[in-house]
Amino acid sequence: MSKKARKRGAEVGVGEVLAQEEGAPESQSAAEPEAPAEASYYFLPDAEPLDVDERELHDLMKWWRHGRATRTIWQALSDGYVTVFVVVMLAAMVTNVVIHAQGSMAGCDTTACLTGRLLLPSATVFACYALSLAVGRLFGPVLASAAEGSWLMDAPISRHYLLRGRLVWPLLGSFLIGGLVTALVAALSGLDWLDVGILGAAAGVGAAALMAYAAAEQSSERTLSLKLLQNLSALLAVAILLVVVSIATGWLPVGVVALSPISFALGALAVGMAVLFAVSLRLALRRLDDIRRARLLSGGSLVSGMQGAMFALDFGLIRDILVDRQAIEKGHVRPTRGRGVGLAALVWRDVERLVRNPKPFVGLVLSLVVPYAADALGIVQLKSFVSALALMAVMVPFLGSLRVLTRTGGLARTMPFKTASIRTASMAVPGVLALLWALAAAPAFVGIAGPEESWELGMVSAFCTAAAGLFGGCRWVTAKKVDYAVPMMATQAGAMPPTLIFNIFRGFDVVAVVTAPLILQAGPVWSLGLAFGAFIVVRGTFNLDELKAESEAAQRELQAAKAQAPVQKKKVPRPGAR
Amino acid sequence: MVPMAKKRPVLRVAGLKKSFGPVTIVDGFNLDVFPGEAVALTGRNGTGKSTILRCIVGADRPDAGTVEVDGVTVRETDPRVRRDVATVIDDLDFFPDLSVVEHLDLLARAHGVPDSDDSVDEVLREVQLVPQSGQLPGTLSSGQRRRLALATAFIRPRKLLVLDEPEQRLDTEGVEWLAGRLLAERERGLAIVMASHEPTLVDKVATKVVRLSGVTYEDGDE
Q1: How many domains does the structure of chain B reveal?
Q2: Which pTM was predicted?
Q3: Which residue of A237, A370, A542, B16 pairs with B65 in a disulfide if CB–CB is 3.0 to 4.6 A?
Q4: A435–B contact, CB cutoff 8 A
């Protein structure tokens, strides 16, 4: 549609403009005498449809959307000047930090510094590849909203033009995020700017190429090669990271790794990825018309669900959405017979669940590196805190049962147990795993290079750290939904419901409180006491809501009893009366 | 046979009141349900059927009034109430990684059902979910999810069955089956309270029909 036509459209109405622009048939009919009244709103089955130009349709939609905008982009930016100011400030701060880091890191010439400088950005490159493939597979990467699915996808039009724009954003996003993050890590490591550029290009172009490859595979819904590439990239990233930690801690006695072969290899990788990008993009564009509508819409619904969860900062819900998604993808399992009766059945089901899906064990085992690395690097005071944080993160997948039983009351209501008992049973298997983790991590808390603590105290510290991680994870998964019905809190960002704010710190608070005595070197016995307190809270022994409900019920019963009981008047003798 | 008046009701609701802001949905609602009795709550959308049921199972707290199940004041977290009341209302959740049959197996074992394997097989056949027994809940159709929800109520021991529009998303044959099943449950002495818009179900199962009408606003308008 031409600009002139759009302008006219605003004056005379879109339908009229379209009718005039469609050309011959309508123009001719307008010139002819008025058609008989039989023309109606319905479409005759044998009538020939008009040819639809997808470009015009797209432009029309765009124009409608623009027509509904109430502010220009400049007005929006001027209204959000605080945001713009913050972004500019943050950019300036990051630049300043990078320049300072460049200077200070360049001075460090130990083996750990030199190898870390090279290998850490390389690990980031592969991590970006894995992330790009994971996101691409999860969302589509080409997607459409439910409205577009209902209103546009049904029409006999080529989807190519409508979906082409959808391909641009994931490609651009993966290129920018991959490139910038890796370049930032490389710059902070103290590499020179040429190497920063090479690493950034390898990550950005590679991430975009893999995203394009995921788009090319979307129409055929083949995921095997994508999964393989994703796992391979993740494995490489973790392996390089472990090498960095091993060298830094002195576990792996190697000399300084030479810079030039790695730079050359990464440069070659960037070129290879550029070729892959060109081929995949061409394929993806050709196959846009073949993507099933259901596949397009599932990505769109996932995005809208996650947008809603992000709006409420409900990270638990985001995880739920992803877990549900994985379950739907899996679809079917080989059922196993349960064991035990009563609460034991719940515990056994958790065991069987882990046998069926042992993937979370990888994270649990990897998290053991943290206390050992912290010990080797001499981070004595924060060792417990960072280890507990790592454990908390890897414990979450083991707490799926607790999450489902606490997020709504419905499932817990079907079981004849107290809520606290259900929670305790759901924590049993993760508790055993945390205990094993504590035993495996104990040498790091005693001290490997030279004993920092006695064996007893080291063991108690390891146990407290494991408890902090476990209960932190439990607290995170039992977060309640944001309640917008309660009185709001006044904040700098406007009125906010308290749960919206407190949910952000949920889990981290338990880790901080339980490990605080270890950080402050007040002795692990205090930590043990605090861990027990955290268990009482997480178990829901003193559930404030329940106590309130009990008190309210008691009040109501008392009032009902008072109302039903016959009034007994007590005679009080008057003073002086006989 | 013991006359109704001499029996203790399984469910006793007295003076129930529930408001949402200025809108009073239920006020002064009383109900006694005896063993072998089925009460159907009917009425237009928004007249408080689901609200009453949610208060009965303890999912919502009433503003006034009492709800007792077998002489015990209802609290959602009370294990006695959880043991005696089987519910099918809209807030039932499922484990995303447990299959259909594993859900039923877990519930049967949690309630200590003897011969749980046989019971699970029987219920699974009855709700016609045998072909879907290995499927994860996320892949079930809405009707199949409804059947699974009903199965979770039938697999476990119960004294009172609370159902909120159990016919929802069931096909015609499914509604027929449900009516027959509930009738059999009632005749075996189970107390049932349900909200329903389905005349077939109400006519066949209910011994008492309570028709709810209207909500009250703060200014007294109805």
Answers
A1: 1
A2: 0.80
A3: B16
A4: no
